[in-house]
Amino acid sequence: MKFLKSIIFSNFHLKLLSLFVAFLMWLNVTSQKKTHLEVFSYIDIINLRKELEIEAIEPERVKVVLEGTSRNIEKFDISKIHVFVDGSQIKEGENVLPVKVAIEGVQNIKIVSIVPDKVTVYTRKKD
Fold it and tell me: For the chain, what are the domain ranges?
């Protein structure tokens, strides 16, 4: 019994310190863990010429995958995501355009992927 007590309590302050340091390291690793968030969003068309109107967008929605720390993802407001295509170069008929994503006022969250990254926009002249 005396032997066991000497093993446990010899250099007890160092053992306690090492336990505390291990806890801090564990806390640091878990707080920095990256988390993914998948958001499905409809597509807006910006800068569309006035003489054109949209007939259809295929597909209507895209999947945006975001990455950040667990803390940042939990606080993230998905209404801050704006998925759009630039319609300034659209012509009448079928147009294949790249999808762009803007995130308002948010830092430390990265856009990992946009699926699909291009959409087909069908337009016609207004009557």
Answer: 1-31, 34-125
